[in-house]
Structure formats: C-alpha cells, structure tokens
Design goal:
With 136 residues, the protein is an alpha+beta fold. Strands 1-2-3-4 form a four-stranded antiparallel beta sheet, sandwiched between helices.
C-alpha cells in the first residue's frame, strides 16, 4: 500500500510540474495587459487595504471565468484593483496551452472582461523578435 501511495504522490508531483511549466508564458505577461475601462461594484482608493472587501470567493470567480471561456480551465487567480475597482484577475488555459484573462467583479461575481486567446507560439515569436531587434 505504501508503494502505491508513493507512486501516486510522484505522479501528482509530475502533473503539477508539467502544468506549471505550461502556464509560464501566461504568468510572464500577467501585468502587461492593457484592460479596457471596466466598472465594478467595489471602488478602491489608492493605498486602501482591500484584502477583506470581496463579496465572493476566488473559487466563485474561477467558476465564473470557466463559464465565460468554454473549453478552458482556470489555472490562477488573484484579487486586484483595475481602474479603481476590486476584481479577480483569472488566467485561463485551453487544451492547446493557449491562455486568456478574465476579470470578474469581486462584488457581484459578474464577468467584466475576457481577453483574446494568446497561443504559446505568440510568446516564442515575440522572444525571437526581441532577440533579433535588440542587438547593439
């Protein structure tokens, strides 16, 4: 029984590592997104502590995001302030490792924005372009 548990734990660790490597491009571009003018329900002032102000959980926000983007799974989420409103930023990934971002209102749980899907190849092309054109 302990050999089985050890093998199961090793398989689970491999699964976590593989999924985290697949998500790396999504996290690399995390804060570079230019979001449209969204309007949420919980306004946040500069410097205000917002950690306890959300009316919904991260799990609820991820469920909303998964409903908004069919055939994708929520892989990461974070409570954040966008345009002065409290939202959850959720990263979604599809079976082809394409990803997009969903903003979910932290007050009502409604979807506020869904970005276009970016493929893993778009990051490879961007890195190669940057290497070619940043030479001195």
């Amino acid at each position: 029984m302990t050999r089985f548990a050890g093998k199961l734990a090793a398989l689970m660790l491999i699964g976590v590592l593989v999924s985290s490597v697949a998500a790396t491009p999504a996290f690399a571009d995390w804060d570079r997104t230019n979001y449209p003018a969204i309007q949420g329900t919980i306004p946040i002032a500069d410097g205000q502590d917002f950690a306890e102000l959300s009316n919904i959980s991260l799990v609820d926000a991820m469920s909303t995001a998964e409903n908004a983007v069919p055939d994708s799974k929520a892989i990461y989420g974070k409570l954040s302030v966008i345009n002065g409103y409290l939202v959850y930023k959720i990263v979604m990934m599809d079976e082809n490792r394409g990803h997009n971002k969903v903003l979910v209102d932290a007050g009502t749980g409604e979807q506020l924005y869904v970005s276009d899907v970016k493929s893993k190849d778009s990051y490879k092309n961007k890195r190669n372009y940057d290497k070619k054109h940043n030479k001195k």
